Amino acid sequence: xxxxxxxxxxxxxxxxxxxxxxxxxxxxxxRCQFLWIGITxxxxxxxxxxxxxxxxxxxxxxxxxxxxxxxxANALTEKGVARGKxxxxxxxxxxxxxxxxxxxxxxxxxxxxxxxxxxxxxxVLQNEGYAVEVLWERAKEITGRAIREDIMASNPRWxxxxxxxxxxxxxxxxxxxRLRDLKLTDPAE
Length: 189
What we know:
Elements: E1 5-12, H1 19-29, E2 32-39, H2 65-78, E3 86-90, E4 108-113, H3 116-127, E5 132-137, H4 144-152, H5 164-172, H6 175-184
Parallel strand pairs: 1-2, 1-4, 2-3, 4-5
Helix pairs in contact: 2-5
C-alpha cells in the first residue's frame, strides 16, 4: 500500500455499485489514510438539474442515498477495509456551487476517465477549486444501465459483475420490481 495523503475522496452515483466502481474506490483507498466517498445524485427525487443529463432520471437512480451507503460499506468491509478508514458524504456534482458544503477544497478528488462525462466532471471540480487526480483512463466495460436492464429482465448476467453486497441488496430490496415501477412511471416512455 502506497499511502500518499491523509485524506482524499472519490465520487459516483453507484446505481448500483459494480466491480469497476469497487476497483476505483479500492485504488483511491490505497492512496490515502482516510477516504471520503461522495454519493452523487444523493437526492433521487425527479428534478431538473442544471446538467440535465439522462443519468439523472428517476429510473436511472433507483437506490436511495442510504441504500448506496450501506451497499458500499458492506462491499468495502467484505474486502477487508476497516470501517473507520472511510465515510460518506453527499456529493452534489449536479449543483457544483454546493460541493464545498460537504467537502473542503483541501481534499483531493480521485477520479477515472471512462467517458466524456468524466472529463466534464474534472473541469467542474477544478473550477470549484478542487485538485483532481486521475487514477486511470480506459474504456468502461461495465455500466449501471446494463446492470439495471439485466436486473429488470431477470437476466442473471449482472451477478457476475457486481460485489456480493450488491447482489444481496438487489434481492433484499426487490430492486427488479422497483426498476419496473420506475420505468412504468417515466413520462418519456
